[in-house]
Amino acid sequence: MPTITIFKHDLENLLAGPGEGPQPITIEQLEDSLMLVKGELKGQSPDTGELRIELQDSNRPDLWCCEGIARQIRAKRQGALSKYDFLTTKLKSPKRLNVAPGLEKVRPYVAACAATGYLVTQEGLAQLIQTQEKLSEMFGRKRRTVSIGLYRLAAIEFPITYDLVKPDEASFTPLGMDTVMTLGEMLLVHPKGLEFGGILAGQDRLPFLRDAKRQALSFPPIINSRESGEVRVGDDALFVEVTGTDLSMVVLTLNIFAANLADRGAVIEPIEIRYPYKTALGTGVITPQDLEKSQKLPISTIEQALGQALGAQKVANALRAYGYRVATKGKHITVTLPFYRQDLMHAMDVVEDVAISRGYGDFLPEMPSQFTVGGLSRIEEVSDRVRMLMVGMGFQEIISNILGAPQDLRDAMRLEGSEWGQLVEVDNVMSQNFSALRQWILPSLLRVEAASNRAFYPHRLFESGEVARPDPTQSVGSRTVTVLGGMIAHADTHFSEAHSCLDTLFYYVNQTYSLEPIQHPSFLAGRVGSIISEGKQVGVIGELHPEVLERWQISVPAVAFEIDLTELAER
Amino acid sequence: MDISSLIESLHPLEIKVLSTFGASPSAILHTEQLAQSTGLDPSQLSMAVEWLLAKSLLAVDTETSTPIVSLTKTGELYFEKYSPIERVLSVARDAAKTGMRLTIQDIQSREGLEPTEVSGAIGRLKKEGALLIIQGGCIESTSRPSPTAEAMRGLLQELHRAPRELLAFPEAQRHVIHDHAVKRGNAREPFRIDDRVARALKLSVTGIEAIQQLSQQGTAKADNPPIGGQRQRQEMQAKIADNYSQQAAQTPLPQQRKLSALIHEEISQLTPELLKDGNWRTKRFRKYTISLRAPRIAPGKRHPYREFLDAVKTQLVSMGFQEMRGPLVETEFWNMDALFMPQFHPARDIHDVYFVKEPTHASSIAEPFLSQVAQAHQHGGKTGSTGWSYPFDVERARRLVLRSQGTAVSAHTLAAQPAVPGKYFSIARCFRYDQVDATHATDFFQVEGIMLGEDINFRTLLGLLNLFAREVAHAKEVKFLPAYFPFTEPSVELHVRHPKLGWMELGGAGLFRPEVTIPLGVTVPVIAWGLGLDRMAMVALGIHDIRELFTDNLDLIRSTRGAF
Description:
heterodimer, A: about 575 residues, alpha+beta, Phenylalanyl-tRNA Synthetase, Chain B, domain 1, Phenylalanyl-tRNA Synthetase, Chain B, domain 3, 4 domains, ten-stranded mixed sheet, 16 helices, elongated, B: about 575 residues, Arc Repressor Mutant, subunit A, BirA Bifunctional Protein, domain 2, 3 domains, seven-stranded mixed sheet, four-stranded antiparallel sheet, 23 helices
């Protein structure tokens, strides 16, 4: 979900199209129109006209820029997308970019175009750079699958070569530095080399873009040359290239840039890429290129999914106004995505675009009519019952994090190395406080007790909640169990106070139990028992060990019990 | 009221205060002196004095008031976690070091502060020249000191130890205190200024009379002649003890009760013995002052947040939803793959999900779901989709994580032959790899579910959301906005106008993509929905920090009324 910054008057100019006066839009109208792009206005500064917009759809990189948002709104206002001539004009001898053999194993694909006649403004440049960053970061998975380079066309002589060289074979002055370096040195010292060098790890030869005069353009996907690879305000001829590991994503990214620059008034000149190896689009690939992602589907599919009979005409109009090309034939419709989109996987994607184009407000909510019976799970019923009993016995319910600290769950309970101290632990720990799932519930109760010595006594606390217990017999290595824990703390408390409560609980859940003396490090020896029911151990009861109380800095005696409700619920 | 019934109605605390004057009825005593000689704590003493003043037994001779500064709850919070002005300044200075651009909104969201807190702090810092607001609403530190921020720390520390007289502070600090003291309509300030009133009190004419009567009563009814003032004091002590038994639920010592009964034929407690032998007929029962505040008890009760969730649970059941449960530890398969989130999806990154340390992988994943889901990802399988076109990694699918979304529970249900038509919900604990702050918890509940049926479509989806808006949020106005979730298409965000909160996002929903349902064996359309109820819960519980939902403060849990 990228958040981008755009300028209101830039948007207004783009809404009108190149050469036209700006088309004003109020903030209210904008917020309304943002529904078309799943966008939300997150902030604005009226003095500068800066708008911050969050875009939700991670499959629509074309919308992560001012041009794309304007394009979607413009299509809706005009009822269809404007024409992009460069997709259809056939060039007799297009400019060329030659790919060197061996790149198929390193970074196989490239797409490029030239854009002339658009005078780069301050804001236009800021947008170009923002789009470059967002696309390579989020869509290009941090440049791994897609990275983008922008250059001054005037400094470049065609044909360009997408080459593969040894780290010390090529050198140039990279952006952000003022000395000539080899590619290998850039990986070692340049900030971008350090950040993105991992993408090329293990390669003994590196991608290198150069022109016909062997002038360096860039070291993709790391850094551009300072000479040709730094676009400035006032430039009116640009060269754009995209390299990457996924051909359709590479072409799509270039298509988005071509559309953006065309929307700003540039003339796009396609470039022919010549591959020495086979690609899904052949060995000679003209870019930008309309990949014409299309689908044929029955109108009824759309109508059924929407719950509304719209008819072919309305469906077709809605999709055209959303940028699609549409052909209807009988009861079917064939839809083709605009060239800057590839996110059509299923008919349902078309269904949503029809709904968005018409506006969600256009659909009347209808109450689902089918009858169903509601109810709680068995374990929730048991839990609710014992909760009410605990409340009746004067216990205050608490609620705690399940994710806790091993120190609290195990060490402060004197359970290091014991069977009760086994935990489901987190691998990627952010904070020790949240690094293991609780395996029992008493530490949660002690947490409250430790913080509440000023609350008047007696303290009777309980929690009924989930814990996770390591269990090698389970496929996921642990079991989630719902457990009831109760604790009583005050100056005169003792075992039998807790025992009475336990006895009462078992009576009212209609189960029998017995206590069997055990050794348990968390409790005082001789004052702790395992709760046995139907021959199974279902819990523990006892007086908490003074050392446990000390570690929690609790200054009154406490007795507690814990019952495995999952076990009781399964009976 | 005549003097004797006036005396009869006296509370032991009042008698105690009056008796201090007993020796010298014309004395003028200060509140401190009274406190010392009665040994009462300040609240008891002030209660007794107020009553006596109201009964015109005491009169105020002179009155002086001293302003005292103390910390409010907000102040205590600032003491622990720094005040907005300190935090804003420190963020701005950090940003200046790293050269980062910082907007007011950044500060708000990063620090979890209220807009008014931030704007107040920035306004002051700007005035003091410690901050500049530059183009685009960005904040820049001038690295000049802020007298307010500096004074604030000292004041918070000092007042945290104990309240203090306002005049004890130097002029500059007094200004800061005044500017940040609780005033009408501005409850979120760290300081409070209260006037401590010191009074000099004397007996009124009636008061003197009452004192005399009291001591005579004592003499007349005594079995033995009094030795000095001892008898009188004893009687008063007995009376105090008796009346106290109502207030503090303490039983008076037996000899005191006996003494009292002897003197007055008056008792405080009806006993089984008195009922049995009928002797209660010869006794007088002491009258209680029933306007006293009742002693506090701590009842057993549900946790207020759990109570809120119970209400949601009941509502969902009443709408025909069946509860589902699922494990805390999940495979990436059920947590994400089954929901058609591609394995390269950014939210599957190490920075969003907690991974399990041991074992790292599940031993197996149930078939045919594994193969069918893998096919859906790779090329669509039998779902009519093109799929994500990437090699599905079964190893990755088996990786164990802590459940990060409740939808994982729904995915299990889809694979377990759910009823058609059917409605299901879960209130599932989920875990996110997130920095914990006032609005983000790492461990939280998600309320979510599904609805299956032949008649499910986009309009019935909106209908269901309408129902939620009405029944759960009691909202009369709703808005449906297009949204994006990896597992639904179309997707909707439900916004409602909450009676207290205004427009807010209540939840997200959509029709499960066929790439989700078909591989799990479901062929009818399915609605997936999730509700974000924590904000509503926080309003119902009157808290501002999401961490307080799971607070360890027993006093707070006991005293929260909860949603009702």
